[in-house]
Structure formats: C-alpha cells, structure tokens
Design goal:
The protein is 67% helix and 0% strand. With 181 residues, it is mainly α.
C-alpha cells in the first residue's frame, strides 16, 4: 500500500514553528554568513525559545520574519559582548593603579571603611526580605536578566522591576547618608 503524504499547507498558513523547523539549515547558514560563527547554534536555540513563547499571529512573511529575528538576536549578543568588554576594560583600568604603572593598594583605614560599607549594604538588602533581596542578588551580583528571574520565580516582569526599585531606593538612601544600621 502506498504511503500517504499530507498535503503541504499553502504559503502563509504554516505556523512559525513549522517554518523554523523546515528552514533550520538555511537559517543556520544565514547566521554563519553574517558572522555568528560558533554562536550560530546558540542564537538559533534562542530564536526557537522566543518563537515558542510568542503569542501573536504568524506574520505573512514568516521566513523574512525569522531572518530579521536572527539578525536582531545576533546584534543583541554583540552589543552585550561590547558592554561586557567595556565594563571589564574600565574595571581593569580602574584597578591598574597610579600613573606610573604601579598598582597602589588602599590604606588600611580606607579598606576598613569600604568593608564596613559593603557589609552595611548587604544588611540593607537582606533587610528588604524575600523576594526583593534574592531578586537584587540574582540581577546585580549574578548577572541574571530581569526576564529570566521573572520566569524562574513565576512572576511578572513588572513585579521583578518593582522589587529592584525598592532595593535601589534603599541603597540610595544609605548612600545619601540615611544609614539605619
């Protein structure tokens, strides 16, 4: 008995996921051509996750939409890498020391004051309680995005932002001299 083949969907009626799966090799090739190199598979995976979470209708030009999405994801990764490089460079320059190229260490008193301020900041953040303290630590100390924190904790992005604003306000009040130790 011959095998039955399901008829192909007319153009424009396929789901975005179906177009993605059908065109995966071309999309991967596109990423490599525009310079994604070893990041191509990761970007493709990020796109798949984004596609699976979309709650909007399939665009009429699904393949063009996917190409644009991949291009934007590559740009986002490059910008993020640039920010990281800039931050690391600035940090290295800050820690490089004096003008004569030798590294200088802070004196004992300055170091003690700095340690006390860091401990006070930790107490302030801990005093906020959960989830604000945990969200602040994840975002500022561990580098997690607000969106990933929201997804992991099962809360809205605006709720995560609200908790971060509380933490920032408490630290700002501390910095401006309203220290309630």
């Amino acid at each position: 008995m011959p095998e039955t083949v399901a008829p192909e969907s007319p153009p424009g009626t396929q789901s975005l996921e179906a177009v993605f799966v059908a065109e995966r090799a071309r999309l991967l090739g596109f990423l490599r051509r525009i310079g994604a190199a070893e990041e191509a598979e990761d970007i493709l995976h990020d796109a798949w996750i984004r596609i699976r979470s979309l709650d909007r209708p399939v665009p009429s030009e699904a393949l063009a939409y996917l190409y644009r999405m991949l291009h934007n994801l590559l740009i986002d990764r490059r910008r993020s890498a640039q920010r990281l490089l800039h931050r690391d460079t600035a940090w290295a320059e800050l820690g490089s020391g004096s003008d004569d190229g030798r590294q200088t260490e802070p004196d004992v008193e300055s170091r003690a004051v700095a340690v006390d301020e860091v401990r006070a900041a930790y107490r302030i953040i801990d005093g906020l309680g959960e989830p604000a303290a945990g969200i602040f630590r994840r975002h500022r100390l561990e580098g997690q995005t607000q969106r990933s924190i929201a997804e992991e904790l099962g809360m809205g992005l605006s709720t995560v932002e609200k908790h971060l604003r509380r933490a920032y306000a408490a630290l700002l009040a501390f910095r401006e001299g309203d220290r309630h130790d």
